[in-house]
Specification:
By secondary structure, the protein is an alpha/beta fold. It has five helices and five strands.
Length: 128
């Protein structure tokens, strides 16, 4: 089963995204900050992270690097209320699997989750 981790400091965003993800028959866990997420117990397989880029403390752009340092390989999809060329470029540099402006199109986000997990799983099966 697919698991999606939501990391956003806004309760209403976490609640709305969790409802959407559950409606697509995916398991969901929500966290209010990056540290809370990093300190949780989480399986890697068939998992994806949706993270706001701006939060108190560490932001979402830090997640791919922090996860890799801990040996985790989750695709990270970034969300932001700020949709600028600079923000999109920063999301790409940070290693994001996707970038969406809030409020996000529900079907586009669900499609991005499935694509990101499929891509990560196919990369794991490539010879090194």
């Amino acid at each position: 089963m697919t698991t999606v981790y939501i990391v956003d400091d806004d309760d209403s965003v976490r609640t709305a995204l969790a409802r959407l993800i559950r409606s697509a028959n995916m398991q969901v866990h929500s966290f209010g900050c990056v540290d809370e997420f990093l300190n949780s117990d989480k399986p890697d397989e068939h998992s994806c992270v949706i993270a706001d880029i701006r939060m108190p403390g560490q932001g979402g752009f830090d997640l791919p690097k922090l996860l890799a340092a801990r040996g985790h390989k989750y695709p990270v999809i970034f969300l932001s209320a700020q949709d600028t060329e600079q923000t999109r470029a920063a999301a790409k540099r940070a290693g994001g699997a996707g970038f969406f402006r809030k409020p996000v199109d529900a079907q586009a986000l669900l499609d991005a989750i499935e694509w990101a997990i499929r891509e990560e799983n196919s990369n794991d099966q490539l010879p090194h």
